[in-house]
């Protein structure tokens, strides 16, 4: 309906979910040619205000956008430079003494500019509706974090020396990459390309929207910013333009860029791109190897975010023989070896393999504490970090399944009311730790790799359930992080209002539910080879699937209350080859979809387990449709 603003007055709109775009206001009449409305935005209900928006930079909040509406009945729209990247709440205010009739308020949605917003390539459904919402909230978060590259954030200053109650001008009008779409870290903030975020985002984007074009554009922008100056020779930036101009450097984020290249290839099979960027990759790996000291481990120069390459995701204590940095290094080396073989660079394979072997040997010798059952941050630390321990499992730096299981149990023992804390986030002794969904996303992977899917499922319900359902959140996207006591703050930020409530590094559950719980795993690029290894935990029903350039992957799985699988149907692309792992199941695999939702009956080839003991374990399984037939 219509609303008449008579003198100073305001109306706040709740869109019901986090959105992004350009606001337009349809005005019927106004009493003065000087009539003007102001617009304020916020992702969180905490910062609904007629005087300021939530923040995008610095300790201050953002200024309202003034919208002159005094030229008679018309549609008045904000300029494109003031599109807002993330907001659930919009407040329209008349600060003057004029009368203004407003007949309509609309938002032109600008996120995911080249996607069909309803055409997901992947899907997930299970018998736990919270987990279903978490999967789709992760997918939607990354859609909000997909923007027109010409509308990145304008970083006018890194810090603002002004009173906290001042407001800052803000603009989203900086070109941060080529192309028509790009994946960034956050919808509202930073609207920049961050390689650490991409390590979580790329798998989750793949299983949902498969928007690899946005990934490639962001990745190319990072590679093109590789340093040629002597001080930072061959380093990739901590973040893309314009943040890179501050020359903050990070050893870990440098290696995240290498990993992002490997992920992009795995999900697209775009070997031509890898070959075209191979000199960037080898130079980047050379930088990492130059930082290996006489111990055989990477030695990160600097400490506590101060020094030549000690920046990270917001943790304290980065420096020296850090376990997180060395585990990431080990993972990057092994991903690089895979790529080097594919591009025919045997010299790099020969050079990198012994470095990786030595990193694993020395890290376990120097940093593993068998009494605690965790890796310590470095040889002189009393901190047993979340990030280093989850990366140790993810990277294969650990030495046994028993070690993985022990780390998984030790990490779970530290959970609190709101999720998994990161003790390495404490800068001042005696202060609370923070919960970093970036690291938590990787912890989900670690639990699944360790054979503890229930830990991963429980953490999703606990931590991501809080992020989805707390009334201060958007109910649709995932926040950047918060304190372990539930306070919405972050260690480097001196204003809670600048927290991003739509942050790509928090979207790990989307990939973990598809790859880990549903168990559709790609063993080589595009799923030319694959493994189906469901790990349902306490779930009794899981339907999931996604597409690659090879074709579609789909599974339907049902289990009884004891966790025993009673129904399995799988569909993989013809011409591919895979394996199946179903422990504690007695039966055989028959060709065809069976009596599932596709209602295709076929009883051709039959495959029985290729190993002794309870379970079905098959290798060299041709792509196609198969279903489980239980023994009587």
Automatic annotation (TrEMBL):
GO molecular function: catalytic activity
InterPro entries: 6-hairpin_glycosidase_sf, 6hp_glycosidase-like_sf, Bac_rhamnosid6H, Bac_rhamnosid_C
Alpha-L-rhamnosidase C-terminal domain ranges (all copies): 528-590
Domain of life: Eukaryota
Any GO BP: carbohydrate metabolic process
Gene3D superfamilies with a match to the protein in the record: 1.50.10.10, Maltose phosphorylase, domain 3
Alpha-L-rhamnosidase six-hairpin glycosidase domain residues: 181-408
Protein name: Alpha-L-rhamnosidase
Organism: Lachnellula suecica
